[in-house]
Specification:
The chain is mainly beta. It folds into 2 domains: 99 residues, Immunoglobulin-like (Sandwich), CATH 2.60.40.2140; 298 residues, Jelly Rolls (Sandwich), CATH 2.60.120. The chain is built from 5 helices and 26 strands. The strands form 6 sheets. It has a 7-stranded antiparallel β-sheet, with no helix packed on it. Strands 3-2-6-7-9 form a 5-stranded antiparallel β-sheet, with no helix packed on it. Strands 10, 13, 14, 20 and 26 form a 5-stranded antiparallel β-sheet that branches. It is globular.
Length: 443
């Protein structure tokens, strides 16, 4: 395959054979073509054979005069078993370009340089299939979830799509919680206003209606979501099955801040949560000097990993697949290996009369399906910050309180100073992600 050179400094090709590659999703083959032959960038792979009727689904990334260009959702089909000419792709004039950048520009979430996987085709393992260095938020990959619902734990934040809560700066993704009253410019808004995020377009449509997630009204003693934050998911452009996820990140500090890096199934193959699984790569609490009732650290110096699985939400033996660590760089936190009985036996369900939703699947079910990555910062909520835990400042709400969010907000003078909102633009409270890499493991 060759590409006509019109001043390109680099051409990157991502393709699969007889399998659709959507948007900027990694293909089975992903190569950077840096050298030219004559007037063309040429890629040749003698280990790949295509037959009459086969098709190549691909997308191309190029840099010309310091500007990045994309040609997405392309397809070429071999209709002649003995073609005489190479397949050429012309300069994608009708596709948007991005501004030139330095290695780590200030982007505030705007488009800069398109990052691409840099690996060759997977001839050895582990093999890099996805890499994001966060020069900008790539909306072909990352979708912002928009909801007031509190993530199933009645957390206190609203998830937004704006550059106050999620942005890239100096090659680092920041997910930063802020005050809703700051965004609205009205200290009385939480008890008198209304938030309606049903939306109308792909960029502003509510993504989660559960738990009154798309519209809420404030009232005295019942505040609206007092915090705005962000939650991004890769389901728009990157889903994968089996691999190693590598993340370099700095965790936030500040009372009642709850950062998470986790994964959910692309499809509920085995049924609704948790039958199709959940993989929590990392969760932490932003509180300093925060301990459980036994005196063990459970704050910012503590991270945990968990698997959720089970036939229904009443039966989720996550405690059998949970581990925590106080120093994580390069260390394994959690390693779970089910035997031939799979996760059904691992969870102790083989001793019950419940029906096994994974009985016709592999022993790795429900974790044998495609998953996507989620990045978010929550605040407060029920149960994760246990009533029995303790720290320098008391927890301002109880898990059984009917107005937990209101109780939290009324204690703002206690917890908000711990976020350092007036230092470094409040970024001590942000989850800061330098990069994410995903490696495909040997099949």
């Amino acid at each position: 395959m060759s590409f006509v050179d019109v001043g390109y400094e680099l051409v990157a090709l991502h393709f699969s054979i007889n399998k659709k590659v959507s948007g900027v999703q990694a293909g089975d083959y992903n190569v950077d073509i840096k050298n030219k032959q004559g007037g063309n960038f040429v890629y040749e792979n003698r280990l790949v054979t295509i037959n009459h009727g086969d098709y190549i689904s691909y997308w191309v990334y190029g840099v010309v005069n310091g500007l990045a260009e994309q040609l997405l959702d392309q397809e070429w089909r071999l209709t002649d078993p003995t073609p005489d000419n190479d397949h050429h792709t012309s300069h994608p004039d009708n596709h948007a370009t991005q501004a030139p950048t330095n290695n780590h520009p200030h982007s505030s979430g705007g488009n800069t340089r398109q990052q691409t996987p840099t690996q060759q085709s997977c001839t050895s393992y582990p093999c890099l299939i996805f890499e994001d260095n966060f020069d900008f938020i790539n909306h072909h990959v990352w979708e912002h979830e928009l909801t007031l619902g509190g993530g199933g734990n009645w957390e206190f934040q609203q998830y937004t799509n704006n550059r106050s809560n999620s942005y890239c700066k100096n090659g680092v993704l920041h997910i930063k919680p802020t005050l809703t009253t700051d965004a609205m410019g009205d200290d009385n808004f939480l008890e008198s206003g209304s938030i309606d995020i049903w939306g109308a377009g792909p960029h502003d449509t509510c993504t989660g209606n559960a738990f009154y997630g798309c519209k809420r009204d404030g009232a005295p003693g019942r505040v609206l979501n007092p915090i705005q934050s962000a939650r991004l998911r890769s389901s728009r452009g990157f889903n994968f099955k089996y691999g190693k996820v590598e993340v370099e990140a700095k965790l936030p500090t500040g009372d009642w801040i709850w950062p998470a890096i986790w994964m959910m199934p692309t499809w509920d193959t085995y049924g609704s949560w948790p039958a199709s699984g959940e993989i929590d790569i990392m969760e932490s609490r932003g509180n300093l000097n925060y301990k459980d009732k036994q005196g063990n650290p459970v704050g910012v110096d503590h991270v945990g990993s968990t698997l959720h699985f089970g036939p229904n939400w009443q039966h989720d033996p996550f405690y059998r697949a949970t581990a925590s660590k106080f120093s994580v760089d390069g260390d394994m936190i959690l390693n779970v290996k089910p035997d031939s009985g799979g996760f059904w036996k691992f969870g102790g369900f083989d001793k019950t009369s419940m029906e096994n939703p994974w009985r016709f699947a592999s022993k790795m079910a429900p974790f044998d399906q495609e998953y996507y990555i989620i990045l978010n910062v929550a605040v407060g909520g029920l149960h994760y910050f246990a009533d029995s835990n303790h720290g320098p400042r008391p927890k301002p709400w109880k898990d059984n309180s009917p107005q937990a969010s209101t109780d939290f907000w009324r204690a703002k003078n206690q917890w908000y100073p711990t976020w350092n909102p007036h230092v470094r633009d409040g970024e001590d409270a942000a989850l800061q992600i330098n990069y994410i890499k995903v490696w495909k493991m040997k099949p």
